[in-house]
Structure formats: structure tokens, C-alpha cells
Known about the structure:
Elements: H1 15-32, H2 42-49, H3 53-59, H4 63-78, H5 92-112, H6 114-125, H7 129-155, H8 165-181, H9 193-209
Helix pairs in contact: 1-2, 4-6, 4-7, 5-8, 5-9, 6-7, 7-8, 8-9
Amino acid sequence: MTGQVRTVDGRVAGRRGQATRQKLLDCLREMLGTSPYRDVKVIDVARMAGTSPATFYQYFPDVEGAVLEIADDMAKDGAGLKDLVADKSWVGKAGYQTAEELVDGFLSFWRDNEAILRVVTLGAAEGDKRFFKIRMKILNAVTNSLTDSLKAMQASGKADKSVSAPAVAGSLVAMLAAVAEHQKGFDSWGVKAKELGPNLALLVYLGMTGKKPPK
């Protein structure tokens, strides 16, 4: 990593500087999990990391800049969600297993990154193009893979050719994202956590194949 990280003024950070920078990011991530985004201050992050605001500003212009760093790293991990779909079968029991794995992986990713994704979603909703781009990078990874899978099924006669593959894929991913963001709220509707995944997988399978899953 040495030589890959730079300070705000362009200087290359050494190992100690990189460690300090990473600690600041780790503390910020932790604080976002317990405090509203707009309540997080530089002085609080620095204090938690055992350093000073001046040190924070060596690496980040402000809290938002540091949040974007965390979000960018998360988006790189999120791009791997496409592997849950790419080159996977959607036929029969194997297809339903693909739907289950996609749902489980998607919901798990959202739970693991809940705090930063909440900030990204808020920023995107408010029209911040930087946060919007990060959010779409994650969602597009899955949408494009589902689109390719559905087009392949249509070409082989295994799916209805009259439907728009991008529209179906985009709608399914939008549904997954909405459900993922509301995971904690389902309990108030009488939905048990263990019921959510299987029923969501059913909807994904139906959307992709137009068929009921095999028993």
C-alpha cells in the first residue's frame, strides 16, 4: 500500500500515515452506525481515533469526503454481487437455488453495509450525483447480470421473448434494494425474518422465468 495513498495536498503517506488514515475511516464507519450522518463531526471522529482534527484534514477535506472514500470501497465490493447471477442456471431447482443465493447475498451485503448505504441512499435521493453514481454502480452490477441471463433464456426459448429483459431485471433489483433497506421494518408488518428470504426468492424466480419454482 505504501505510495498508493496521498494526503489532501498531494504528499505520499507512509505506513504510519496510511494506518492513521485507515483508523479514521474505521472510526467514521463505526460512528455512522450509531449516529445520524449530519451529526457526525470531524472533531468527534478524530477524538475517537485518538488523533486531532488537523490530522483528519491532512487526509480528507471534510466528513463527506471521508464518507465517499468508504462508499467507493464498498461499491467495489458490491460489484462482486454480479457473481451471484453471472453464468448461473435459471432452470428448475438449480434456477430456484440461483434466486435464493441472489436474495441471500444481496440482503447480507445490505446488512453488512447498512450504515454507509443509508448515507449513500440519502445523498442519492437528495440529488448528489456522487452518491447516485455509487449507488447505481452497486445496483447495475446485478441488473446487468440479470439482463444478460434473461436475454440468454429468451434466445434459447426458455423465457417469454415479448418481455423487456432490462425492464424485468431493473424492476427486480429495485425490489431487492427496497426490501433490503426495509429489513428491520418488516417485523412491524408481522413478517418474520426467516420468511422474508424464501418469499423474495419466489418473486425473483417468477420474474426471471415466468414459472412457479419446482417443488
